[in-house]
Amino acid sequence: MSHLASEQAKAERAAALGLYVHVPFCASTCDFCAFYQTKPTAQAVKSFVEGVARELGLVTWSRPVNTVFWGGGTPGLLAARDLRRLGLLVRERCGGTPVEWSVEMAPGSVTVERLAALREVGVTRISMGVQSFQPALLDALGRQHSREQIYRAYDRVRAAGFASVNIDMMFALPGQTEAEWQNDLRAALALEPDHISTYCLTFEEDTALWVKLSQGRVKLDLEHEARLYESTWAQLAAAGFAQYEVSNFARPGHACLHNLNTWRMQEWAGVGPSAASQQDGWRGANIADLTRWRENVDQSLRVTEDRTALTPASLAEDALIFGLRMNEGVNLEVWRTRSPDAPWNVVMALVDRLVADGLAQCEGPQLRLTNRGRLLADAVGADVMEAFSAEPAHA
User: What residue stretches are annotated with the Radical SAM core domain (predicted)?
Assistant: First the structure.
């Protein structure tokens, strides 16, 4: 890439702006899920769509929205007419169709009518929450779909002609053997998706799985998890999927731009109950309650929870935490320039230690984790947080 092209790419990246819409409806609660959700009654859906219309009118931005992401919950539970209305509201507010528009769907909610509505408004990417192809494991997670529904839903998504199709999978499930995970991964690859996300099961507080863990009904096995990580990376690489983040793999041209922009500490506006935003020097979230969120937006209030002023140091800290989860790593020189008052003496001492321990490597200013380091990405992130909490050295 020429210097001019490189500078242009940097400028485009710096101007990235995303829109996240949290659709809070779920037919049932999966045992592992800690996201805000509620039942999709007719009145609740009506209030939600009207509230999104209201909140979109409160959002301000001075440049085009590049990417849109609808998460949940289960956005696909909305009826086709509601998906169409929501999509038209978003497209109108964005001033056109964004470069990338992703929507999460559960296999049981995929219908020809819903897919047609999403294609009509300009959605480019469907991310389907498969998790597993094995009935016993799906049942253990509290998932409501069957293996047959997965195949039927995938065929419908492909037939609808979306530019990118992602499959979400989970491993280190209670009772799951390494052979069972390999079978699940082979089944996912056989569908020939454009992108695969593989998430290690985590135990979030206030979930059914957390209760089971605290009661000793399920157990953690970190060595087993590490073996599953490594075998996953090897199998996906052999199948032509490039890892670009600890849990995300894509064929060329199919990486999720919305997530990349988020991990690179760009700006995004979040609408809907519990949706987070990072924009105009602030970070915060909407209240995680449909009724109270609607009351707030009706009073022209948004991003009222955990509202924090962003500083160069806090952005640099998060850029390292999330940047080191990506295979591209993070450019230390860029962030040292943007945040000269951060405790870089402590941070660079940590960098030297990571390199010496074989967890990271530096190529000029670019710091990346090694495969071994990526296995310990959460622990590295905690070390980064600790380093940034130190007092900066003054000359």
Answer: 11-242
Q: How far apart are the first and last CA of the chain?
A: 38
Q: How far apart are CA 220 and CA 223, in angstroms?
A: 9
The parts of the chain modelled with pLDDT lower than 50 are 1-9, 11-12, 32, 203-205, 207-218, 395
Query: Could you give the angle at the alpha carbon of 223 between the alpha carbons of 215 and 329, nearest 5°?
Result: 110
Strand stretches in the chain, DSSP E: 17-23, 67-72, 100-105, 125-131, 164-171, 195-200, 242-245, 248-250, 267-271, 276-279, 282-285, 305-309, 330-331, 360-363, 366-369
Q: Are 201 and 218 spatial neighbours (Cβ–Cβ below 8 Å)?
A: no
CA torsion sign for 62, 68, 73, 74 is positive
> Among 260, 233, 227, 239, which residue's Cα sits nearest to residue 194?
239
The pTM (predicted TM-score) of the whole model is 0.89
Domain extent for 318: 312-388
162-199 per-position pLDDT tens digit:
999 999 999 988 888 999 999 999 999 999 999 999 99
Rg (alpha carbons) of the chain, rounded to whole number: 21
pLDDT at residue 320 in the model: 98
215: domain CATH number is: 3.20.20.70
Place of tokens 């970070």: 283
> 225 and 367, same structural domain?
no
